Amino acid sequence: MKHVYQVDPNHTTVAFKAKHMMVTTVHGKFKEWAGQVEVEDANPLSAVVTGTIKAASAESVLEMRDKDVREKILDAEHYPEITYRSTKVESAGDHKYRVTGDLTIAGKTRPVTLDVETEDEFGDVMGYQRVGFSAQGKLRRSDWGITWNYPLDGGRLLVSEEVRIEIDGAFVRKVEQTVGAGATA
Fold first, then answer.
1. Cα(35)–Cα(45) distance, rounded to whole angstroms?
2. What CATH number does residue 121 fall under?
């Protein structure tokens, strides 16, 4: 039996971080996104993970930087969505997985592997099955043709080549209602 879990928007953060001037780490997140996981027969290795992020929803704590990320790095006007679709899930230990998939940024698609850790599934008070998860990965901007930067003294760059991805949250699915024998619907 196939189960579809939605990413819980109220308890999930889709974040990124990169070095600024090769000195400090800048943290950002996306405000608009959606995702789901389809799992066959409760087998996590059968999971298909999909997600869509609105590129223009990138934000950090500095509007000038956010504008550069949206316009010069992600080119959100021409490429409004960032998408991910898993192609393989491998076990990496108890509740740990390596999820490889196709990530599309600015019109280019490349593989990315995320290290994922899940919690035990449980039923919540609202009638949903819930699974906590965290996922981490990294990418090189140039692999997607994202090369905008600003050179600084000493060979430093304004933005690092490497970007780290961090997603923490929960998957939820509504528990199916079963009508028993002799019951009326």
1. 18
2. 2.40.128.110
